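Notebook, p. 212. Picked up where the previous page left off. The plan for this session was modest: take the two constructs that came back from the sequencing core last week, fold each one, and keep the raw output in the notebook itself so nobody has to go hunting through shared drives later. Recording the first one now, exactly as returned: residue sequence, then the structure token string.
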Amino acid sequence: MSELYRVAVIGTGLPWKTDGATGFGMSRAHAPGYAKSGKCEIVALADIAEANMAAFNTDLCDGKARQYTDYKEMLTTEKPDVVSIATWPHLHAEMVIAAAESGVKAIHCEKPMAGTFGEARKMAEICAMHGVQLTFNHQRRHLPTFQTAKKLIESGAIGELTRLEGSCLNMLDWGTHWLNMFQMLNGESAPVWVMGQVDVRKPHQVYGVKHDTDGMCLVGYENGVHGLLCTGETAEKAVGCSIKAFGTEGYLEIHNTAPHLRIRGKGDSALRELTGSETEGGLHGSFANHDNVVDLVNALTAGRKPLCDVSNALVTTEIIYACYESARRRGRIDLPLTIDDHPLAALVESGAFPAAL
């Protein structure tokens, strides 16, 4: 292509762990990806915090991007091709829908998808209706650690996959990554039912959305594989690592600390460690954010599905809200999920969870 895609960013934030920062400043992780693609130019920014926006412009756009405090005005005036959205989850739906209806070609949004399942489903529907490519930043799909694990499973190194287990702090903000990894490692097999339980021992919000403090989510997939995600501060003790995949002839482990990938497969007498390029970046390599943007830009150009397409993000989100709905109904939830709200938030507001003794 001869012309560059015109990119606009909604939500500029501040660098992680700097004074005044309220999150990771993830749009700052998107921007290098647009530059790396060689096919994009960031032409406009929108943020209600003008100082944050000005700093982003200086740091990442050479001061050339036009600045707006009203993102709708920016969409109308600039008519961008691609929009990055890095705001808090309860704002995602209105911003994604407004961008889709303004005529953009692609939207890249931070995770988790939205503050309710109804909003997540509507985002996907509206973008499909307008022919807009929608992606979410489940960037770990691009990390060598997970790609290597996927190849090992597909090659039969642990036999036929039977079970996946994972551990993390909570279901919605962190668990969206691990359940998305379950999807990838399990060949994108569709979930058919979910059963779960959660607890909230203290008020717990992440970026404005209510989260569990402890939980268990059991998923049954169409191909017969089962997935179990445990959440909470001590969840890793239940699993022994971040993610574990069991097969008929062995197992592999994905760890937060090096060595990040370990396997005891066919012919192995003990766990062996994989290192080097096969696990570059471990579980948190920042370059995955850049590669995710490069992939979505290349997908837009080629007319193919990007690796972090809305299709797998919506499945992941459905599992999470189905887990919360299972806790509300006290039973197994058969998919597809038809609710629109956030069941955990409704449970908390009803007083269902007693305070810790």
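Okay, moving on. Second construct, recorded in the same format:
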Amino acid sequence: MANGNAKTLGLVAAGSMLEFYEFQTSAIFLSIIGTVFFASSQPEWVRDLQAIALFSVSFIFRPVAAIIVGRIGDREGRKRSFLLTLLLMAIPTIAIGLLPTYAMIGAGAPILLLFLRIMQAMASAGELSGAAVFTNELAGVNKRGLASGSLYGAIHLGYFLAAAVAAAVTTVLTREQVLSFGWRIPFLLGGALGFVALIARRKLHESPAFLAARKDARRKAPLSTVVRDHKLAMFSVVLLAGYVGSTIAVIYTFTPLFLQTAYHVKTSTTAWVIMVAFLFLSASAVLWGWIADKVGATRALRIGATCGIAVVCSAGLLGVDPRSPQALLGWFALASLAMGNVGCAFQVGTSLFPASIRLTGFGVSYNLGLALFVSTVPLSLTILSHRFGATAMVAYIVVAAALGIAATLIADQLLRNAPADTAAGIQG
């Protein structure tokens, strides 16, 4: 990858890191949020369930935001949509860090938190899809896998940063101090980083693919064109989003909460374990991107999905003790090496739409998939895990992997008749 493109990728990833930072911060402190923003007279599991529901419902609004941001990005430019989504992410992240708690204003606290979570979800809907589209438009034909993997690896450093900040806060402060003020620190820091990234991102230039398709894009209504002419491509990306979102949500969002509630693993322990796991995930995403350029992105996705099934099903055979930090770290590291393949979904999904409607097509489809599949993960797994324990999580990941494999088969079919420069490096 040329130095100029690498620098641009860094600017793109720096902004997208905030989405992942905020998402993981909310996940790590989900139990704390349940305690702080809901009535203390309720049982702990009820507060946790309410926090999970609040966390999940924001996904429903992502497709709506993707329509708006996609139209701006396809008609006015990728850069303009980038700046807008990052600004709308940074503001509510800081605001959450300043929110009054239930003890201060009662039921108004969770209502305000829900409003800000919806704002974040709507901003992030355009942020991630915009980054995926821009990166693949910028990369050379034979480097799209490495570019997508590098982007995915870089933005997952946001997960790492969130886990690192959470680990530091929960290690240095007592639980009483975390409940009092410590939970605010990661949100305030994330919002500040968002504004720094916003200033840096102003240096971006438009992608050549958008500039070439700009006149055609302005003559079209992006959403109606996507729905009318690209239904099968939309379906493929919806399934890809189900695979990516569900596996990541189960392993890195729900599992830490499950460990804390079912096995009473300390929040600081899960934060440190997840922090290291995200380093493995970032590195493996780059590796899987390189593999995708060698064997094809759809084949890399199928191989990775199969590896993921093997890893999650092996926990019992490996005798993983959920109370052992060393055992947890080993399992999460292994899972992260397998899960790095999900970055290939960006390369596959963005290739299924022409440049004039690409951001709308990929963004709406991907976020619709997240809304359909990921929004249900925390709530349904909370209920299922009470009855079936960790088996429910294994089953979820197996089903998610099946969605990913099905999506790649559809993509292969669609790309057989695509232009050579579009299909290059995708089919396996």
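Notes on construct two before I forget. Residues 3-203+212-423 form a domain with the Growth Hormone; Chain: A; fold (CATH 1.20.1250.20).
Flagging for discussion at group meeting.
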